[in-house]
Amino acid sequence: MLNLISFTSSALGSLGQIALLGALAFTLAGLTLAFVGGIRADARVVEAARRATWAVFALVTLGILVLLAALLKDDFTVRYVAEHSMRSSPTWIKITSLWGALEGSILLWAWLLSGFAFILSLTLRRDALRPWALGTMFVSLLFFVGICATIASPFTPVSTLLADGRGPNPALQNHWMMAVHPVLLYLGFVGLSVPFAYAVAALITGRLSDHWVVVTRRWTLVAWTFLTAAIVAGGWWSYETLGWGGYWAWDPVENASFIPWLLTTAFLHSIQIQEKRGLMRSWNVWLIVLAYSSTVLGTFLNRSGIVQSVHAFAGGPVGPVFLGFLAFLLIVGIGLAAWRAPALRDEAELPAPISREGAFLAGNWLFLVFAFMVLLGTLFPTFVEAAQGRRDASVGPAFYNAFAIPLGLGLLLLMGVGPLLPWRRADGQGLLRALVPLLASGLGAALIALVFGVRATGVLMTIALAAYNIVGLGLLTARAARQSGGLGRTLQAQPRRYGAYTAHIGLVVMALGLAFSGAYRQDAQATLNLRAAAPTTLLHEQLELTGLRQQDRGFGTSAIASVSIDGKPFETRLNSYVQAPGTLFPAPAVRYGALGDTYLVVTSIDPKGQWASIRLIESPLVSWIWWGTLIICLGAGLTLVSPARPVMRAAPAGLAPATD
């Protein structure tokens, strides 16, 4: 039996454990009430289930506050604090330790999930979907709160009281982005539970009209925005922390966050077809089931120990449980979709290939193929290990780039032409007239790039498609502004459309950053002497080592190299931590620029303080990835704005009001 509570060993830990057990009890009660209320169509029982979410949220909030207080107070009677914190850690690291290890990260997930369930309880309409949507949220809560309260509780008492804790994972205290990236990622993952709950409710009740899609569009968009920001924030952490000058390595855990993003992006586009044309009902149900299930798959990969990753937690007892929950979600989702398959059939004709629906559908297939290939590459080493018993198989970036580049270019092509096409069917001549300025701008941009020395085929195609997209969106916006009397009125009348256009521009900016930084990155290494007679020339830069020093930070030490690059000072570090004294963690010095970054990292330092080995990396347009993400998020935020209602003006005397 699990030893979960011991008031004599840890009063604070016991309080946190009681809060989690209470949350688990209210989750079970809410789940029962929701299903009973749905079966009996009893509004009073459903109301009781709705209020149970409040109790769950309050109790899980108490649990997470107790753990946070224990971390800040250095209460080593709480097992999680003893294993993952230490007295000398800075306050911000103690706070981020809350989600820096297995049990705390699952508790954060459970807390966010209870928060989403609480918000949903306040916004749910009083309709037939209500009890079943609540019940589905309670199923997810039962899993995550149940794990926190039992096999992955952070509050189990310690067997031996320690004078100091073992400290946090060194890799997770090397940069402040670890205070941001995990929270954004969990907000994205957890946010998909709401559209999944509505889809399950629609399948159970048979109310498969467009209502559930319309209601969940905002929820899905918010989750997608958090997920987008989280993925890029993780790339920034990798760029600033690991000392390799890159931001994406097709790491299994990175891929595990990318797969839900691909599926959710496809869902956001295909629900527009269901809203406008009543098509793709079955497709959308499958997409949201797969998207939410893939978040659990990602969590399983991160916490089971079956993949090798700098991001992964060590294997533990939760891996098989997550695998079981993933199987449960897939079985229930696929079973319900198969049961309701006759009702999910589209009544209208299939989309014409040359139409806006056709472009969206083609894009969806590209997203699905993309997601499948990433999943295949991620799980291939695991399949090899299961079949052959060896763990040396790996899938490198070459495999992913072989399909990611053409698929990405295909998505850029469809992204530009889709908004130009009308619904149902496009006229061939009209389409050609619309495409001429776009194709001309793309060709012109590629020729200009050639003149300036760009020779990489993928970069040239990205430049051409970037111009093609920007000109197309610009022409559409200008035409709408002329018709409505100004850009401001256009944005007020259709914020959803122009928010999507803004997000597309952000994707174009990001694509340019990815293309240039991937194709034209330069990397060189050298050893600099402290009293060299002349500067060292590296990548057309003049480098001088101007100083070396050691800094004791209490929880570790830093070896600091001061380097001058073309007269500009850089300071790069090698950090070591008391938890891992034999391992060095680089802290690069990065000078960001609009056209490219100068990235300096020290790889080794002479113990006598006479020399330092450094690595210099020049990466063009890397900052465009971060700026593009900001534009995407701004665009997504604009789509959430409600359109302004038209002002009704009184007709002049003697004239009848105009009608269409």
Silhouette: flat
Distance between the termini: 73 Å
Largest sheet, in brief, is: 5 strands, antiparallel
Q: Order of strands in the sheet with the most strands?
A: 2-3-4-5-6
Order of helices and strands: HHHHHHHHHHHHHHHHHHEEEEEEEEEH
Q: What's the alpha carbon Rg, rounded to whole Å?
A: 27 Å
- Binned, the helix content reads 55-70%
Which class do the helix and strand fractions yield?
A: alpha+beta
Oligomer: single chain
Q: How many strands in all? A: 9
Report strand %.
Answer: 5-15%
The mean pLDDT is 87
The helix count comes to 19
Segments where pLDDT lies below 50 for 5+ residues?
647-660
What does this 3D model show about the protein?
It is a single chain. The C terminus is likely disordered. The protein has 19 helices and nine strands. The protein has a five-stranded antiparallel sheet, with no helix packed on it. Strands 1-9-8-7 form a four-stranded antiparallel sheet, with helices on one face. The chain has 660 residues and is an alpha+beta fold. Helices cover 60% and strands 11% of the residues. Helix 1 runs antiparallel to helix 2 and helix 15 packs across helix 16. It is flat, with a radius of gyration of 27 Å. The longest helix has 33 residues. A hairpin with a 3-residue loop joins strand 3 and strand 4.
